[in-house]
User: Fold Transcriptional regulator, AraC family from Flagellimonas pacifica.
Amino acid sequence: MQTRLKSAIFGKKTLIREYNEDFQNQDLKEREITYDNEYIRGKVDEVMLDGAHLSMRDIEVKKPYQVNVTHDSPLFKLHFEIQGSSLYVPNDSENPNVSIPHGHYNLLFIPEVDGTLYFDTKHRKTLEVRFSEFLLTKHIGLKFKNVFKSFGDAIIKQKPYLLWKEGRPISPKLCFLLNDIMDCGFQNISKKAYLEAKIVELLVTVLNEVSSSEYCKDLVPKDDYSSILKIDAYIKNNLKKTLTITTLSNIAGLNTSKLKKEFKLVFGTTIFKYITELRMAKAKDLIANRGFTVSEASYEVGYKNPQHFTAAFKRMFGYLPRNIKR
Assistant:
């Protein structure tokens, strides 16, 4: 399996990446790539597992750039734009563009990759999981195409498939999984086993959305759906503030009853549970990776009383925040 990349960030050379068939690897393979040029500065961590290839980016974008990309095999990918955004434009206008905005993700199947990727945000933090039909068959079973029918039909007919036309906000549950993957502290064979299990969990969690991906859109009007996404962005950017239903209702332009009902249809949980999960995920990251004390983290995510924060944290994770490994 081969990927060809051409871009100014590579010095206008064509970069060729070779992979084992179906990404099958008996051993863990890792590679760190650092960049510091006129376009980008930062690093990309790549991890080759048995059946999957992970790319974790954390880069500063100095000025917009593009990458011409081709694959010699179909692309199966889970793509998470934790920060930043990306746009893929195929050379064949019959195929759809793939746009993933800030804080969103998508599941993709593209039989023939031949196009251009565009990046124009100031910072990109992403997780991309490339896999193959081999991984799906191995962990979900030979009949996965029947279970996840729309996805399965696209594979059978070799037609491009996007789980969501414009991506979907990264939920708190997915945030927890992404953090587990990116912050993995294991080494060697333990790391390989841990990451492979987490990738399967991540994939199954997303695939469970396949059968219901159009469900919420059928029940939530397009304008209301946009308002719900606006609320999601507001919540994520204001976890330190007091977030009330009344405030969110005014921002969304929806009455409180409609907001609560449609928010649950879109995200599968209540607004307050969603906010709590986001706060806990952010606090855990602040303590584990940024050196915050428990009191500092609790304040940063909107808790005035650290004891209340500690109780909520333990209810969610089953252990106290002071026990987080730094």
About this structure: The two ends are 38 Å apart (CA to CA).
